[in-house]
Amino acid sequence: MSGSVVGTTIRQRWRTARWVVLALIVITLVGALSVYLTAPRDGGRMDADATSADGARALVSLLRDYGVDVTVADSLEDVEKAATADSLVVIAQTFYLVDDEQLQRLAALPADLLLVEPVAKTREALAPEVSVAGTATFGAQPDCDMREANRAGEVQLGASDTYEVTAEVPVTSCYEGAVVRYTDDRRTVTVVGTADFMTNSGLLKQGNAALAMNLAGTRPHVVWYAPQREEAGFEGTATLSDLIPDRAIWIVWQLVLAVLLFAIWKGRRLGPLVAERLPVVVRASETVEGRGRLYRSHRARDRAADALRTATLQRLLPRLGLAPNAQPPAVAQAVAERAGRDPAAVGHILFGPPPATDSDLVNLAHELDNIERQVAQS
């Protein structure tokens, strides 16, 4: 009876708690998804997905919120697939557009072009009618009849190149030449001298967001192309050796030759060993006697005994098959078995106290010699 009551109570608690567990799981998943979607994403300048100060995610999001279909192209092939006659191709971060073939393919697109802060090579290929007139740092009025600029009014462009159109084509120049637009036989080309007002941080300044949206939103479909690196299939024509001046190569060869000559001059030829007579020949017995006199003058009988015992053990242990760290009782037992002597007496000789007199030291030396001889003869 009690078991069924306990089982019923557990089931009731589980029915109540499972909704709480499910709610916690849902809250956790929603929180994780929100953190992921709102997490900052670093990227390069004018990158459509970058939330950094010089990224362009804010502008791309605004365009999409106002109904503009924005296609972010990661490669030139993506641009060619998405670009049509009724679309606008925004080309920013042109530093990596260095291949002539790439620029020719972009120039052949049927869509309108918006060149943002183009480098000289990109501008000459995609907007050959435009040339740089100078630079300016200002916040100015449009002072032109371009509808997109007049709607934005005064803007804070910052440092910008200014342009002029050299060909005989209809041209509109705004903001003292920082924004120019002309139309050729196929399309409309707009050139902007700076990208600062289109970045995430630049949109907050006066009129910048309106001008950026008006220029990038002239068509219902926008292809955003801001390459952050060179195309994978592009191979530069210059090698490392091409970038090194000719004089530098000759200097390196001269240094190599100088080091080689110095090595030959300072180098010594290795010949056979030459036996030389020593100035002084010292007999081994004299060395032993000199050390003994030093021990005796300092009355260092303990050090002398330790030296004799250590030398004896170093010669005995290999003969006995014992390790260098063998314990004294084991050594004394092994020596006693080989020499036929009492283990206690052997232990006293090998590991006993220091001798009290010089005579005891001499007797110890004799006993050590006897032990060593007996072990060797056994």
Features of the shown structure:
seven-stranded mixed β-sheet, elongated, about 375 residues, 14 helices, two-stranded antiparallel ribbon, disordered N terminus, alpha/beta
Helix and strand sequence: HHEHEHEHEHEEEEHEHHHHHHH
Overall spatial form = elongated
Provide the helix percentage. 40-55%
Calculate the terminal CA-CA distance, rounded to whole Å: 90 Å
Low-confidence stretches: 1-6
Largest sheet: 7 strands, mixed
Range of strand content: 5-15%
Structural class assignment: alpha/beta
Please state how the strands of the largest beta sheet are arranged side by side.
Answer: 1-9-2-3-8-7-6
Determine the number of helices (DSSP H or I, runs of at least 4 residues). Answer: 14
Radius of gyration based on Cα positions:
47 Å
> Roughly what is the average pLDDT, rounded to an integer?
82
Q: Can you count the beta strands? A: 9
